[in-house]
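Quick one:
INPUT:
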């Protein structure tokens, strides 16, 4: 994923002012991106780690399709290969279908990360579809129905039912949700906090 795996490393390398594109590095970068693309599972999501390809439950920015989108968008911008933009679009369809995460509003493993995934695709293409999707996720994030679903969600990895371990934090709580909602007001200027640095 973007937070815990190869995807995030590749994303950073593609921001290294041409170093990633020097002769030997370009081939390695492209091979790594192609390997990442090849890990795509049958339903379109990406595994959270090697050996878990059959377990397709995590549609999180940190583990799965939402975090893959900005990586493939950047790959398309840097390498100009249309298959990477196609992969980002396909991943956005997965996020749209399955990205209403009951773990909460967070950026890392919540609906906030999905908002930023759509915004990355929107900034790159200017297409209305990812912007519409980001806006709908933002509306749902603020809805009583979503709050009720999160409050009732049981997660064995959490200390308390319906409550993130760090409920006010940037990556796990309201801090990140606030950033996503603010960025929805100026989507062409949006940037995932601590991750986007163009």
């Amino acid at each position: 994923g973007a937070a815990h795996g190869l995807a995030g490393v590749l994303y950073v390398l593609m921001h290294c002012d041409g170093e990633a594109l020097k002769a030997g590095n370009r081939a390695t970068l492209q091979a790594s991106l192609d390997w990442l693309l090849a890990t795509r599972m049958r339903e379109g999501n990406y595994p959270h780690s090697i050996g878990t390809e059959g377990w397709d439950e995590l549609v999180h920015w940190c583990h799965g399709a939402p975090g893959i989108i900005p990586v493939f968008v950047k790959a398309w911008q840097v390498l100009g290969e249309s298959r990477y933009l196609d992969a980002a679009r396909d991943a956005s369809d997965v996020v749209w279908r399955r990205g209403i995460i009951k773990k909460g509003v967070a950026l890392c493993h919540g609906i906030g990360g999905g908002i930023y995934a759509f915004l990355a695709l929107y900034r790159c293409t200017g297409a209305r579809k990812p912007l519409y999707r980001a806006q709908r996720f933002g509306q749902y994030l603020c809805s009583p129905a979503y709050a009720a679903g999160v409050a009732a969600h049981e997660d064995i990895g959490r200390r308390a039912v319906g409550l993130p371990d760090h409920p006010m934090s940037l990556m796990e709580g309201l801090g990140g949700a606030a950033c996503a909602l603010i960025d929805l007001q100026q989507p062409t200027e949006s940037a995932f906090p601590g991750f986007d640095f163009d």
